[in-house]
Amino acid sequence: MKRTITKFFSAVVMLSAFLLTVGVLTGSSSAAEKKALDTIKENGKIRIAVFADKPPFGYLDESGKNTGFDIVIAKRVVKDLLGDENAVEWVLLEPANRVEYLEANKVDIVFANFTVTKERAERVDFALPYMKVALGVVSPIAAPIKEIADLKGKKLIVVKGTTAETFFAENYPEVDLLKFDEISEAFQALTDGRGAGLSNDNTFLFAWANQNKGYVVGVPSLGSLDTIAPAVRKGNTELLNWLNDELKKLGAEKFIHKAFDEALAPFYGDTVNQEDLVVEGGVVK
């Protein structure tokens, strides 16, 4: 009888442990995410991942302060959430770290020129977009790359973890890719002549070529038209919903256009049509 009771209680303990595990994997994790937004408000600070070397989207100015198009939008988000645009911890990362930092809970939101893709959306939750983008190729004016065929026998520079790396690996495996971890390293390689061209978001390349005489975006649009959006950890529904509502509100006041005028127009000059890039309220036109 005693052995039977012992077995019964052992079974109960094992069942309880199993149910607890199921709860953690399903309901409990969901409940934890529901509290994520409350935790941010209680702490009075939010962690946002941005770039440090990708002007005009995310970079450090001469005084070492974070600035750029993504930063302007992110600051407004922080102000509306916590009442103070400075209530933020900027976390600097490289393109290949964006998904990883969210999965490891190192940041709350990624505002780092993040192109929405099906593969990434399986691992993170993207909010509504605020920009349109495609790939491009920049090269020296003296030896322009105007089509993929021009890359035969030459090296194309890409940054690891970008859509450019994925696009060429999947669609043009014959193209010899020279890969770098950091954006600044990749462009240094281009100016040093270590590659015939560099592929990245065309929105970035237009600005870079306009600021660096002697280079041209010979391939202005490559692949599909995509969007750029902020992202949160997978399943962080409450923060995602708040962020989507915020982007809709900002769209109603044309805030993304204002951010463009402040952060992008000085870099683009008259080389880019604002309406070709800006997305307001998450609605792509």
Question: What report would you give on this structure?
Answer:
This protein has helices at residues 2-25, 27-34, 36-43, 69-82, 98-103, 118-121, 163-171, 183-191, 202-211, 237-252, 255-268; strands spanning 46-50, 53-54, 58-60, 66-67, 88-92, 109-110, 124-126, 131-140, 155-159, 176-180, 197-201, 215-228, 231-233. By secondary structure, the protein is α/β, with parallel strands linked by helices. The strands form 3 sheets. A 5-stranded mixed beta sheet has the order 5-1-6-13-7. A 5-stranded mixed beta sheet has the order 10-9-11-8-12. It has a 3-stranded antiparallel beta sheet with strand order 2-3-4, covered by helices on one side. Strand 2 and strand 3 (58-60) form a beta hairpin. The relative contact order is 0.16. It folds into 2 domains: 33-130 and 229-276, Periplasmic binding protein-like II (D-Maltodextrin-Binding Protein, domain 2, 3-Layer(aba) Sandwich); 133-226, 3-Layer(aba) Sandwich (D-Maltodextrin-Binding Protein, domain 2).
